[in-house]
Amino acid sequence: MKPTEELLAGILDEVRPLIGKGKVADYIPALAEVSPNKLGIAVCYNDGEIIQAGDSNECFSIQSISKVLSLTLAMTLYEPEEIWQRVGKEPSGHAFNSMIQLEMENGIPRNPFINAGALVVSDLLHSRLSAPQYRMLEQVRELACNPHLIYDKAVASSEMQHSDRNASIAYLMRSFGNFENEVMPVLTNYFSYCSLRMSCVDLARTFSYLANKGLPLGAKKTIISQTQSKQMNALLATCGLYDGAGEFAYRVGMPGKSGVGGGIVAIVPGEMTICVWSPELDPSGNSLAGTAALELLADRIGRSIF
Ligand code: GLN
Fold first, then answer.
1. What sections of the sequence does the record tag as coiled-coil (predicted)?
2. Which pLDDT tens digit goes with each residue over 203-241?
3. What spacing in Å lies between the alpha carbon of 66 and ligand 1's midpoint?
4. Which of 68, 177, 199, 241 has minimal CB crowding within 10 Å?
5. At 160, is the secondary structure helix, strand, or coil?
6. Which of 68, 121, 194, 197 to mutate to test the pocket of ligand 1 (most atoms within 8 A of CB)?
7. How many other CB atoms sit within 10 Å of the CB of residue 162?
């Protein structure tokens, strides 16, 4: 069954009591300023039809959701083996900013969706593009069909001021020879990607290419191949929610990607993309009410990849 706006609004009402039970990310001080009461959802069908409810047009910090967009850009610039010799394809079972496996695994991150992996991807972009931040923004604006999207400079610089952990991760990888560029410029770019401000509607539109075999909304040409799109969805299903990936697969049953800004994007291949936003997080750093909303929606409309 197809969701209506009433169905989506009803789901938001059902999960609203969860607000207060999670925690807004505060290790990036600029994120702690966001109201925990925000709650939005948008569905984008592969033909472009949007169904939405709540704060679905309000922009928020996409944070780690950007890791999918930077990997997509890297896939357009590199041969697969050039990427996968530097970053793995396995779930980590550890926190998104953990370094514990890096030391034991020669500086090769488990997957591209934990911080270490996304930093390697940012390093790849830095090596091959003269203006990676510009190119990334251009790609995202095209995918979202929204020329007004911007980086949030306040969020990016707030994160730069608290970057010890990400810098440590990058330096450790560099000590193993798995980082080609100077750490600080790559970190600056990575924080900018994370600071992208987008709404649920923007994000649902942007990720349409993963529900449509690599073909972005309104485009004539694929951005990545059908095979790459399948591969990306597989990585999202196994690694997109860090050490909460198994729980998310069990409850929601869709490839997905979360960010500490409280957004989660989920893909129903062949049909639609969904984006939810609720800033309070569970202990794994995934939106608490957002996951619950996706679980209810998956159930009500009878969709899952399993
Ligand atoms: N910018 C954040 C960080 O590097 C992204 C983390 C996230 O969204 N899980 O810590």
1. none
2. 999 999 999 999 999 999 999 999 999 999 999 999 999
3. 9
4. 177
5. helix
6. 194
7. 13
Cα separation of 124 and 255, whole Å? Answer: 24
Residue nearest to atom 2 of ligand 1 (CA): 63
Active centre residues (catalytic)? 64, 67, 190, 242, 260
To test ligand 1's pocket by mutation, which of 27, 34, 260, 284 has the most ligand atoms within 8 angstroms of CB? 260
Residues in the chain: 306
Chain-centre distance for alpha carbon 99: 20
| 138-180 pLDDT, tens digit each | 999 999 999 999 999 999 999 999 999 999 999 999 999 999 9
3-state secondary structure of 221: coil
Class assignment of domain 5-301?
alpha beta
Residue extents of the structural domains in the chain: 5-301
pTM of the entire predicted model: 0.98
Contact between residue 99 and residue 172 where contact means Cβ atoms under 8 Å apart: yes
CB burial of 234-266 (b: ≥16 within 10 Å; e: otherwise) equals ebbbbbbbbbbbeebbebbbbbbbbbbbbbbbb
Tokens representing residue 59 in the block: 């922009």
Tokens of 167: 């810098």
